[in-house]
Each structure stands twice: as C-alpha cells, then as structure tokens.
Amino acid sequence: MVPNGRDPAALAAAAERLRAGGGYDVTTAAFDVTTAAFDVTDRPATEYAVEEPGDLDILVDNAGHRDRRGVAEMSPQELNALLDTDLTSAHALSQTVARGPAARGVRAASSTCRP
C-alpha cells in the first residue's frame, strides 16, 4: 500500500495506523505500507510515484480540494487550481498507470473526486 499526500508528517502517522491494522480489530497481518509525499498536480512526481514501487494490484485515487466560495468570489486561477486537483490529477494518474509498465499488474482502478 502506498498512500499519498503532500504532508510527510501526516503520511507517516497514517502509515503507522495502517501498519497496525488501520485502527480496526483485524485478525490478518498488518499492511505493508510505503508512503509517497508529493502533490498530485505535479505530473512528473506522479509518474515517478506510480513507477517506483513496482507492480500495482489496485489503484484508488481520491484526491480532492474543497472550496466552498461562490462563483463571484473565485478567480480563474483559483478555479484552475481546484480543477487541477479534482479532475486533471485523476486523469493524469490513471493515464500514467494505463500507459506505463505498472499497467501490467493492475487488477482494478477507481478514481473519485470531491466537489
């Protein structure tokens, strides 16, 4: 499992919880967890993160940014940043997996975004 985020400290804490069974009472072995701290809007970092760990069994993409301001309050640059995180990054990640060597091992993929 390779969780991603921009905050290495938050990722380290999440990895420890996952290694301990995710906070659930599990009877199986704990998860093998390696973290990948990068911004999903950085395509070269995304490509590196996808290829570095080797074969992917399952891809789950749930990157999102929330901005509850109204249309009149959001600049075009802010809208583009929101779309880059919520939509463009999901496309870039899925495309990287589909085109790269990692595609050979992917059994399932799921992309979601938060409004």
Please give a structural write-up.
Helix 1 links the parallel strand 1 (4-5) and strand 2 (36-37). 39% of the residues lie in helices and 10% in strands. It has a two-stranded parallel sheet with strand order 1-2. The protein folds into two domains: 1-37, no CATH class; 43-115, no CATH class. With 115 residues, the chain is of the alpha/beta class. It has three helices and four strands. The chain starts with a strand and ends with a strand.
Give the % helix.
25-40%
Taken from the alpha-carbon principal axes, the silhouette is globular
Strand neighbour order, sheet with most strands: 1-2
Structural class: alpha/beta
Determine Rg (CA atoms, Å). 16 Å
Instruction: Count up the helices.
Output: 3
Overall mean pLDDT score? 78
Most strands sheet: 2 strands, parallel
* Total number of distinct structural domains: 2
Order of helices and strands: EHEHEHE
The low-confidence parts are none
Question: What is the β-strand count?
Answer: 4
- Report the sheet-strand fraction: 5-15%
